Amino acid sequence: MEDIEMKNMWKVYDQMIEQSKVLNLQSWALNLSCFETLQTQKAKSKLRALILPKMVVILLGIGWALFVGFIFYYTLSQTIIAISLAAILILTVIGIITYIHDITIITQINYSESIITTQKKIATLQSSIINSIRISWLQLPFYTLCFIPNKLALSGGFKFWIIQTIVTAVSIWLAVVLFKNISLKNINKKWVKGFMRGYGLNRVSKAMEFINEIEEFKKDNV
């Protein structure tokens, strides 16, 4: 009789443990779901806030490209000006395409997908923004040359060309240095951050942090 009672007690105890495990699992799943929803909403809010500024930049870029194209058309006979404006126009168009690509990435992020997929898309967006910054600085040397007509190129004295060469050389050096150093691996360098300020990278980094915290939550609560 005592054995039967003991077995029944163990059976009830086992059932209580199983119920407790189920309740704990349900509680963990509910907490994870709430936390995941909160984090994805915060990430979504950070990234969505980039769309309007990028659309404004795209519209301004299109206006600038049309203006540069207009000037380019009427200065085709001015060799240095035409070459400089052509380079500026090409790089501006590339920048516009990059911004359109950024918006496409933001709108295509499906937060119901796996965390790894979301992380990859945010990383792609981060890389795209960095590339657009690098491209924009490549225009710098051409802005130092786009005002030189053929007449000035031929009649400019020694002093003019010495000064012009120094200014253009410095701008080329600066453009190359920035192009090489503005990258994801250097993002934590203070001076690199300075050049990246205002492009929305802080928002992208924050969005990535929110998504990464979901993964950490899972690891800490397994």
SSE topology string: HHHHHHHHH
Largest sheet report: none
The overall pLDDT, averaged over residues, is: 81
- The helical percent reads over 70%
Radius of gyration: 29 Å
Number of domains in the coordinates? 1
Total DSSP helices: 9
| Tally of DSSP β-strands | 0
Based on secondary structure, the structural category is mainly alpha
> Roughly what fraction of the amino acids lie in strands?
under 5%
User: What global shape is seen?
Assistant: elongated
Architecture overview:
This protein has 222 residues and is an all-alpha fold. The chain has one domain. It is built from 9 helices and no strands. Helix 1 packs antiparallel against helix 9 (201-221), helix 2 packs antiparallel against helix 3 (79-108) and helix 4 (115-138) runs antiparallel to helix 7 (158-181). The relative contact order is 0.12. Residues 19-26 have low confidence and may be disordered.
Task: Considering the chains and any ligands shown, give keywords for the structure.
222 residues, single chain, mainly alpha
Helix-strand blueprint:
Layout: H1 2-48, H2 51-74, H3 79-108, H4 115-138, H5 140-143, H6 150-155, H7 158-181, H8 190-196, H9 201-221
Helix pairs in contact: 1-9, 2-3, 3-4, 4-7, 4-9
